[in-house]
């Protein structure tokens, strides 16, 4: 909990992924959302999830993020 928000995070090399939700959100759902997003990014980047690859393919990452919304 951070200021009445649930924060789920994942650190991979130099990348930090965060999902936040209200204090009434289910932590398991948020964690599943984060894991699904990370798995999609890993597939897009061919399992090479690092800062350089993420910056080179930022358009694909943002499209995936938009699809989650």
From TrEMBL:
Cell compartments where the protein resides: Cytoplasm; Golgi apparatus membrane; Cytoplasmic vesicle, COPI-coated vesicle membrane
Cited SUPFAM superfamilies: SNARE-like
InterPro entries registered for this protein in UniProt: AP_mu_sigma_su (IPR022775), Coatomer_zeta (IPR039652), Longin-like_dom_sf (IPR011012)
Residue ranges of domain AP complex mu/sigma subunit in the record: 6-59
Membrane-protein topology: Peripheral membrane protein
Primary location class: cytoplasm
Keywords: Cytoplasm, Cytoplasmic vesicle, ER-Golgi transport, Golgi apparatus, Membrane, Protein transport, Transport
GO biological process, one term: retrograde vesicle-mediated transport, Golgi to endoplasmic reticulum
Pfam families: Clat_adaptor_s
Source organism superkingdom: Eukaryota
Cellular-component GO terms for this entry: COPI vesicle coat; Golgi membrane
Family statement drawn from the similarity comment of this UniProt entry: Belongs to the adaptor complexes small subunit family.
Function summary: The zeta subunit may be involved in regulating the coat assembly and, hence, the rate of biosynthetic protein transport due to its association-dissociation properties with the coatomer complex.
Assembly mode: Oligomeric complex that consists of at least the alpha, beta, beta', gamma, delta, epsilon and zeta subunits.
Entry protein name: Coatomer subunit zeta
Organism of provenance: Rosa chinensis
């Amino acid at each position: 909990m951070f200021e009445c928000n649930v924060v789920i995070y994942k650190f991979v090399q130099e990348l930090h992924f965060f999902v936040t939700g209200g204090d009434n959100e289910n932590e398991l759902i948020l964690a599943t959302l984060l894991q699904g997003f990370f798995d999609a990014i890993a597939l897009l980047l061919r399992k090479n999830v690092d800062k350089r690859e993420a910056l080179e393919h930022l358009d694909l990452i943002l499209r995936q993020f938009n699809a989650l919304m």
